Each structure stands twice: as structure tokens, then as C-alpha cells.
Amino acid sequence: MGVQEQTGYLFINKSKDGINIYFLFMGNDLPGCCTRDQDVPDREALKLYSQIL
């Protein structure tokens, strides 16, 4: 068994209630690890990163 490297985008949503961070993985659904929220306003891609699973 090898190590799987997962790449995705890190988004941030800034609002008056605080800051919410979303992890969007490309082509993968990881329950508990990422949130697919297409309705988040004013989000910015902070960086492209890799997470070792």
C-alpha cells in the first residue's frame, strides 16, 4: 500500500460573522475532510496545496 497524494484548493470566505475556510478537492469527496459549497460568496483561492493521506 502506497501513499496517496491529494491535491485541492483552499478557499476562504470572509464575512461579518467571521472567517470560514473550505477545502475543495478536485474530483474527490472526502467526508469530514472537505466541504463542497458552491454558494459561498466572496471566496478567494489562497493557494494550491497537497495533503498526504
* H and E order: EEE
Task: Order the strands across the largest sheet as they lie in space.
Answer: 2-1-3
The chain-level structural class is: mainly beta
What share of the residues lie within helices?
under 10%
Number of strands: 3
Report mean pLDDT, rounded to a whole number.
Answer: 54
Count of the separate structural domains: 1
Low-confidence stretches: 30-36, 38-53
The rounded Rg comes to 12 Å
Strand content: over 45%
Secondary structure tally, helices: 0
Report on the biggest sheet. 3 strands, antiparallel
Indicate the overall shape: rod-shaped
Subunit organisation of the chains: single chain
Q: Termini separation (Å)?
A: 12 Å
What does this structure look like?
The protein has a three-stranded antiparallel sheet with strand order 2-1-3, with no helix packed on it. The chain is built from no helices and three strands. The protein has strands spanning 5-15, 18-25, 43-52. It is mainly beta and 53 residues long. It has one domain (5-52). 0% of the residues lie in helices and 55% in strands.
Key features of this structure:
single chain, 53 residues, mainly beta, 0% helix, disordered C terminus
Any chance you could write out the topology, listing elements then pairs?
Elements: E1 5-15, E2 18-25, E3 43-52
Antiparallel strand pairs: 1-2, 1-3
Write a brief caption for the model.
With 53 residues, the protein is mainly β. The protein is built from no helices and 3 strands.
